């Protein structure tokens, strides 16, 4: 356990949403304190953290004070401004590292990184102006999706181009931002691998989950996913290749499209991932604790799946179903402590244990 | 869900130790905020709670302000002064109720309550002075244990009387406190039932666990306990009888001695209990969430056991084994965030999943 932090140390977490909240709880279970840095007041993670700093990512003094108060820094989202990272990194280690952020903050850089690793991605081409969009359509074909290179999530910052005539409207939708045109992938379903890598290079992957989206937002993740055994192994090997290439420390979500020919890497997220929430009720050590273990330099925990689980997100008015959900057997409720249920807002999730697995001992 | 509190409400918790800490985390999982009231500075529960009040139980103003800030009040320990309870109860409901506290705060009252319910207890007699001790020894016989009526825990406030000649020394050890003499019970092992009762009178018990103590402190709890099926049912019925008699709301720990003839009720604790920690990794809904569900007026959750588990307390220097424990498969670590490991101090526990159970569907 070289470099390992001891219980009682403080983990700084950038971002105070539900991921920061569940990371904070997992950290406390291992005896660590947490300090949340979040621009918005009263963040969900603040309710379960030892300290909260409310300040913007442009407040360098606040960032420095935050860094001085913690032993290691991690994050719940990838869009952290470079200047903020510079200020933080001068004081304390940031895990996962800057390279993981650099790659995942930009769709074009990410796609190129994955392609250069020899992995299969959707066909893609850069789009910076009308002329390059025309060239991109010629290269990638239609139908295709135009996506901003940065700051897109849950389907935001995207426009479909079903035929070349849609190009102008799609380009307008980018509002001048650099973009990437991605060819459609005809896939049967989407799976994701939640993978972890420790400081000393140990890699551990959770069993892939199968994701279903609704209105561009993750609706359910089901484990086990529909995958042939050889494909299941491929999925894990792909994730391992990505983590090793980045000298990654922490948990990463790797989204894969399943086609008859291949596993196509859709995108990577250098953090705990919504599609890994099932691990809270399916494994001895969940993705949040696994991330914390990696970040503090501990050995990775036991991520073996001991149950079949269906995770369902509670979005917006879904929380009105809470009275019924509390009466359901084998249904674990996870609420995020958010005050107001707005359309599209992730309010919580439930993990339904559909079958317990006998131990393989 | 009459009387049910909604997520976003605040639960006040008296006591900021590890039980308050794990209650706080469970409450957050259901979307509740917590406010900890604790005389000591920097309590373990404070690291994961929304608010902390540091004040004594004699600080009536602080108690009133605390009560005003919460929607319901619960507690992690039973020795709350009566005046404090009076001040709190005038403002907000206290769950479990005052009657449960009155009974469990005094060993003599508790023993009489259990006997009057028709349950089997160790033979006992009150001891207030040397003469009553002589009479008690005549009635109960030796060997016996003299215990203070109040404020005893983890073997403290107890003295053994192996023969009548030990009486004087045992009486001295009580330091003038009212006491109760309890006859020895020759038992094969100890089990405990973690039972819960909801606001509307629903009762749910976890599978009994088998407890092993070391130096007067719980060392391990193993589920399933060694109990014949009929005895297992008896244990649950005993717990249900106690909860119903007290119109109890919340989780209670009921310790039972197993003898060839009977289940002898040793003691009850009107709170989550160390011997119920295994539920964190053996059930969809653990004892902490079950207690919170009861206290906020929700239906009880699914307490069905889905794994065999051995809980082991980490006492004092046991935490030095943490590096090894982090490498163990099927071993879930729960640390309490205490700064210093003193002899006898509960620093954390581990739950080892020894066998997963196939679901009974």
TrEMBL record, chains A, B:
It is an enzyme of class 6 (ligase). GO terms for biological process: 'de novo' IMP biosynthetic process. Its EC number is 6.3.4.18. Gene3D superfamilies: 3.40.50.20, ATP-grasp fold, A domain, ATP-grasp fold, B domain. ATP binds at residues 107, 147, 152-158, 182-185, 190, 213, 266-267. Residues 111-296 form the ATP-grasp domain. One of its GO terms (molecular function) is metal ion binding. Keywords: ATP-binding, Ligase, Nucleotide-binding, Purine biosynthesis. It catalyses: 5-amino-1-(5-phospho-beta-D-ribosyl)imidazole + hydrogencarbonate + ATP = 5-carboxyamino-1-(5-phospho-D-ribosyl)imidazole + ADP + phosphate + 2 H(+). GO terms for cellular component: cytosol. Pathway: Purine metabolism; IMP biosynthesis via de novo pathway; 5-amino-1-(5-phospho-D-ribosyl)imidazole-4-carboxylate from 5-amino-1-(5-phospho-D-ribosyl)imidazole (N5-CAIR route): step 1/2. NCBIfam families: PRK06019.1-1 (NF004675), PRK06019.1-2 (NF004676), PRK06019.1-5 (NF004679), purK (TIGR01161). Homodimer. Belongs to the PurK/PurT family. HAMAP family: PurK (MF_01928). Catalyzes the ATP-dependent conversion of 5-aminoimidazole ribonucleotide (AIR) and HCO(3)- to N5-carboxyaminoimidazole ribonucleotide (N5-CAIR). Catalyzes the ATP-dependent conversion of 5-aminoimidazole ribonucleotide (AIR) and HCO(3)(-) to N5-carboxyaminoimidazole ribonucleotide (N5-CAIR). This is N5-carboxyaminoimidazole ribonucleotide synthase. It comes from Tritonibacter multivorans.
